[in-house]
């Protein structure tokens, strides 16, 4: 039986002014359907893991919104972190809780705010990853790169492992410079690391114990108290002491050195929605397409007239009429209290705008 | 004694969505001060004609707003047209009313929605025009062209007239093609026709009687009843029969053929604010300057952060934050119910947007 674990965190600065501190990316419907990215993630894993075996790990600030967005998940499957401790604590706690239920269960970790372009293909690839994980591999799904992206980490793949599509992961690579990224893509041996991991919980916890013994001990103690009256007291005492570290650094890189990590190459479209330009990439069929993202259900649908406009990302979260004329590769984001207009090539720099608003304590816009 | 006549009409389509049917351009503060274009026009002529000798001619739709914007003008100086009859009827009625008061008065006609960049120089030039008018000339102020604009009509000037700067106007020229406009500008003999006319009312009315006898008869009948109890009844009966024609076509072209028209060359910056791009031209010191136009007094000032943005016209009529990033030569107009984003070179095409909204009866946006 397979379990899905969905860490749902994030600061909401890269899709400002659409995403805010109280409306992070994973709560927003960004893909042209009424589903938020979180809801789409839960739907995507549903053929593999039903609601009882799907966990969302989120912070106190978003617990209520998450619980309401995924009403079919049992209360206990919404794991609320008292404070942010990065992905290893979040995923590790879920793994430890699952291990007490089913010690050799296979689980997968899936970010709540990424976009996948082909859910059927996703399920096929995941089935192969699950098969490799049942054999004891720690699987990092490797997205086949379609261009030399410098904003993602890469996996370097080696010889095949087992009888399926899995290949050994020789090492994890940091975000490369452009020239190196070009070489990676040309080699055919490198894959994007989507931080999408599949493993048996016992295999993962053994590696966690070996590489991060204090973190392992803390998470084990919390998991032991999870289904008791002591949960809150133990969380309160232990959680603040846990190390802030990503699961990539904490466990996966060391496990790869020991030869425990493999990858299953994945050819479905995937995007981490790092900014409005990449959101456009994820949703458009061509570089000249416009991507128009309408209001969510709580707001009257805004109307967009895009005249002689190409390659642009137009987001309307108000009931207003938006007219664009003669634009190329522009991002327009229309929200109730803030308007953002930007050349698409500069979309990443919105984080500097947010940093400046933070510096001047312009809380109403954060 | 000099009289100023200010026709205040216009459909409000060229500065959409800022200008609307109920908020035409002349009622808007567009020049970075709190004065509307109409108020700025009244202020500009004040050194030549005080409130008692300044008339505004406007339609029923805008009479109340006009009256409130220029409270120092006597009630009777707000001339309200029952229906739109183009500029000859509007200006001619004012001329006829003034003539009954002072038969040889000099009057000038000044559009309510143009921008002049140097009010002191404007007054100097007008004094020269008034002097020529006192000698019986019909004066069309000729703006010295600074580039080959194809959106304006031109005046072709000939030999000097009298001892001042006035020159004979040989003929009026329609809006030229670009190549011809270049020749006009290079010749030094052509000026932009700003439809800014100065004449003795008796000279004008004589020409009107000669060229447009029916229109002259109608306007004279209305003016005769103006200060009587019959005003409303006569207006109601006569006004609808008046010819719809501009004063340029109705009178000035024919008067030029008779040698009655001269021009006083004017070197003050002038712009008819035909679209947001020309508004930017009128208000910026260089092609890379941004022009930022804030909210009017009835709306909380919107805040604009223009980051690495040049040559752009940014208009905010809401209390929202506007952030632009990496834009070149873009128009952004943010109003309560509609947002317009456009490449600056395409600003004129907004009239096609408005035409399409009209065609589908989207009244709320007109």
**End-to-end separation of chain A:** 41 Å
Helix segment tally of chain A:
11
Strand order of the largest sheet of chain A: 6-9-7-8-10
Task: Please count the beta strands of chain A (DSSP E, at least 2 residues each).
Answer: 18
The CATH topology of the largest domain in chain A is Spore Coat Polysaccharide Biosynthesis Protein SpsA, Chain A
So what's the overall shape of chain A?
A: globular
Largest sheet of chain A: 5 strands, mixed, barrel
Low-confidence stretches of chain A: none
Structural class of chain A: alpha/beta
Helix content of chain A: 25-40%
Proportion in β-strands of chain A: 15-25%
> Assembly state here?
homodimer
Look at the structure and name the CATH superfamily of the largest domain in chain A.
Spore Coat Polysaccharide Biosynthesis Protein SpsA, Chain A
**Number of domains as seen in the coordinates of chain A:** 2
Name of the CATH architecture of the largest domain in chain A: Alpha-Beta Complex
Give the C-alpha Rg of chain A: 21 Å
The most extensive contact between chains is: A-B, 32 and 32 residues
* Overall CATH class of the largest domain in chain A: Alpha Beta
Please provide the ordered H/E string of secondary-structure elements of chain A: EHEHEHEEHEEEHEHHHHEEEHEEEEEEH
- Average pLDDT metric of chain A: 93
